[in-house]
Amino acid sequence: MSLELRGITKRFGALTANDSIDLAVADGEIHAILGENGAGKSTLMNIVYGLLSPDSGSISVDGKAITINSPLDALAAGIGMVHQHFMLIPVFTVAENIVLGHEKVKGLGILDIESAKQEILRISAEFNFDIDPDALVEDLPVGLQQRVEIIRALIYDAKVLILDEPTAVLTPQETDELLKNMKKLRDKGRSIVFITHKLREVKEAADKITIIRRGKVVGTAQPSASQEELAALMVGRPVSLDVEKTTPKLGEVTLSVKDLTISDHTGRALVRNVSFDVHAGEILAVAGVQGNGQSELAEAIVGLQEHVTGHIALRGKEITRASVREALHAGIAFVPESREDDGLIGSFSIEENLILDLHDLPPYAKGPVISTSIVEEEAKARVKEFDIRTLSAKDSASSLSGGNKQKVVLARELSRPVKLVVASQPTRGLDVGSIEFVHERIIAERNSGRAVLLFSTELDEVTALADRIAVMYRGEFIAIVPADTSREELGLLMAGIRR
Amino acid sequence: MKLKKLILPLASFAMALFVGGLLVAFSDAKVLALKSQPLSMLSHAFSTAGSAYWALFRGSVFDPRLAEDHWLHGFYPLSETLVAATPLILTGLSVALAFRAGLFNIGAQGQFIAGAIGASWIGFTFELPYVIHTIAAMAVAIAFSGLYGGFVGFLKAKTGAHEVIVTIMLNYVAGYFLLWLLSTTAFLRPGRQDPLAPEVHKTARLPHLFGSDLRANLGFIVALAAAAGVWWLLNRSTWGFKFRAVGANASAARTAGISVPRVTTSVMFIAGALAGLGGAAQILGSEPAMTAGVGGSFGFDAITVALLGRATPLGTVFAALLFGGLRAGGLTMQASTETPLDLVLVIQALVVLFIAAPALIKSLFRLKNIETGETMASKGWNG
């Protein structure tokens, strides 16, 4: 089935999220839509799937114009979607999740789940999905949950499948599996719209590539195009994908973690017996699939976790029980995983966000009074140094783009005397330009003799920045390996397999 | 920008007056009797509502008849408005401050009573010189009510007990404790059976501002000073910075090293102290003999006042003046036009209703691009 969009325009207030976008997805092709975060990819797909209605433009399927007002219309037209965040109910079985909203009943209102199970088994067998319809969704690994989502689309006979950033939550191996399955689906006559910002995956799986930038289609490309070419189209200027890095000059041990165990309030261990050292002048990158204890480990180092046993020492000084404030002032810069939730106060001005940590210390405060003039001056200097794009430092932090928000966090955290930088997913959701900036900044910190502990689920980022790589699996450091370890081996370690 | 923010509350007030006017007019028997003559019915309705509102004005701002013997007496109603507004300003500030730190202080009522008890006790028990007596009474009121509020913050910080539940319960505790206290020999006025405390001594009273004929007293100035203090605290001090940070995003504040439990406790202490200062101002200013009903509904009206004032100190002062005026004027309206006092409550409720429904007001007045306080009113419950 072919899908064609013509002149799709969608505005949100002053922002034009989609500016007369044309897109033609041919029958039986994997069509990648490549664009940075905020380029308008998701808006476009939400329009196709009936979650948003366009201001103008038309959608046609197999040459016939159709109107889509709801996901039901989209499904009826043969369009299915797998969202970035799965729409599954964890405590329901696979079959229950799949029939949800389309429950068939036998007489007397009894749910007919058997026929759904048969159908699931049939599709699962056809594509080698290996899905048990009676399994609880919460017991399935993320990769399988995603297959449940795909089956849900297929069971309603979707001929065009929209996959929204499907690899964001997967291990490298799971990603490979998914790409293989996408090809299988294509070979069986399905068309796939593959939304992503990851160049490697596009090159590997796509038959055709459409690049969107700032709500407009800026070009199409063949998968044979080089990553540099694709990135340049996506960002609008040439970008260097390689991080320039010299050999590390190792200094003394800056962070020393011994037998660290972190539990949640129920006593369940989230991090188990982790021990490692980070030296001044090196980047230790912690790789791993999201949710294997990385967030908790990062938080524990700055004192944000409550139930901690073991030892954390900064330059030999014990900080295991230190408060957040003590840890930060002992010389730790902390870039939290979620900028919006933990890094910034959205309703505060940029100025205020820059002094969240130091607002009650000189020079910002004289006694109990905050000195507005010094806050203003310092903010101006930071905005300049970190190239924060804003009209005024008095604007609220929530008005900034993701990249600029992260620059505010970095500007604040790196403006204290710092011995150790703990950065958790520092480039998540950022555009290529901002990623470049953050990477350069991290390398600069390391080159100036600070220790860096980097947590990242992006393998590319890990291999580009790390001097050593630790892989975390189910709360443990399964291995600490050299930076030149192959992706395959790292992928296996991330899945908990030691060779 | 500043002006734009005013449009919405003013429009809400205008709408409330309009709807209230309709209610006055069409609940009037004479107006209803004229059903068959629509034109004269309309003119009669207009004059009925007009005279009710004129009475409301005479009762809350200026009464020309009272001005006949002395011009200052004409402002007697305005003085009454200030008297009624004083406790509302202070309790309103209490709620507003807690609000800005992400806490919903429903306990201004109990804290007000704690303050009144403290001020009354010092006021009638001890013999002290002028000024010192007043300051001592206020200081004890602040200590009592501050601890009463701070206790809530402490509980929340230590155990996570939700401040809404705890403050509601503590309101009952304060109310019944006062009732018991007024039955003890220490507090019951000698020779009385009904719950009534002795009057506080003259040395502790807050002086009148415009001579002894007008009841307006220094309490109003204290309230204004408190408002200025809260403004300074929130916008210029390091404490206020922490308060606002925790209120706007507690987890980001925590990540930046701000101690949320400490903020919770200190905010609730200060909020309690503000409400208690209201209780002190009431006792030392306009109601020197404490009764079991000293708290009135100040603590609850405070929530409305703070919301109406958008949880800013200046807004709270204006909202309290508005409510004070309605309260003072309502009595005159009832006396001179037979419009029930309840109507004033209806108008108060309507103002709040229209403020709480900004979308309605915006569409009625075709206002565009005005920021509304929708998020404000729904915050604070998720903590």
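Chain A has a mean pLDDT of 90.
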